[in-house]
């Protein structure tokens, strides 16, 4: 039954073709051992070549070493080439300031790609199963996700990753291992509620099954399948629209707004994501708020505006189009203004920076301990609303040497002409409080009678 189920998945999802060279990720646990055994049974039938990749994370001491020995013996019994690598993952995570789970995953996939290139393989098989699918979807829901995230783990990816046993549940996998006398290794840390995924597996899902729906796994999988079908349809529509209204040129990706503005936001947001992906390769670091900012740029009143996104992406609104670019356009005429609520962060999209501020009492304030780039003012001297904007004609600032025009200040500071419209200025009504990172007005300096201090910076 298990073998036939995997064959069905492989055929329906077109995961494996005759002559494929496949790197199989094998930890020594039930999932990966079951996967390897099934692919080995298929190897002659489909004329596929197998290579095993195993990573010792140096997390579990002797147990991890025994895992490696088990994988070596299993590969020897199946006559499959085996590549084993040992990496101090805890040290890697500490050095690179990443979590243990994320760091381990990054090192595994790096190894898979290295072996894939070394042996000339075209695919990497991973042993994710139906339970993993549900755990992943639950984790994404708790972190916050959209329709794309609710698709769950994909059966195959463009980089050659395939997951042939994704339709098997964990109990069937364990039963298969018993029936074929495979005796896989058991990672005892998987039985401890020490990671978020473990807590979902060991506590949350059993609770849902006991109190709400004993068939929760299958119900969740049906939801994923339905959402994936809907997502596929939407993405197909996005492909059609993108081919009509988007063009990639040397200076970036153009989205022509006449057709763009007639579309539903569900399509428009995905068109922006597609454009960013075409520009920089992926959307890592791009959040929903950034996509919403680009959508806002499609409005006619945003003509000649510019915003900055993470990853060094510049977005320009020109007559008839939005341009996603990696280049600064010299003729871009930006203008921005934001209301500042003391103590709250404000993302300045035109600069790609966040205005951060904190209110402290005078007795808790020590200017000698302030980090570089931090400015401060007497909050009690603010008479109107605080706003952050770029320069306006006639702007002046009161300094210890007298009043100076902002234009003259910029010239004296040798700020390049092309950068002057980008410099953020903090204002109280029409009065200039500070030129961020450069100067503070003496009208807002701290004195002995100051009660509250507003510290601020741009990051």
Summarize the structure in words:
α6 packs across α9, α6 packs across α10 and α12 crosses α13. The model has no long low-confidence stretch (mean pLDDT 89). The chain has 459 residues and is α+β, with helices and mostly antiparallel strands. The protein has a five-stranded parallel beta sheet, with helices on both faces. It has three domains: 188 residues, HUPs (Rossmann fold), CATH 3.40.50; 76 residues, Uridine Diphospho-n-acetylenolpyruvylglucosamine Reductase, domain 3 (2-Layer Sandwich), CATH 3.30.465; 122 residues, no CATH class.
Give the strand order of the largest sheet, numbering strands 1, 2, ... along the chain. Answer: 3-2-1-4-5
Give start-end ranges of low-pLDDT stretches.
none
- Strand percentage, roughly? 15-25%
| Main sheet properties | 5 strands, parallel
**What structural class should be given to the helix and strand makeup?**
alpha+beta
Give the terminus-to-terminus CA distance: 57 Å
CATH class descriptor of the largest domain: Alpha Beta
CATH 4th-level superfamily of the largest domain: HUPs
Oligomer kind: single chain
Q: Any idea of the CATH topology of the largest domain?
A: Rossmann fold
The appropriate CATH architecture of the largest domain is: 3-Layer(aba) Sandwich
Helix count equals 14
Mean pLDDT: 89
Instruction: Report the principal-axis shape.
Output: elongated
Compute the CA-based radius of gyration. Answer: 29 Å
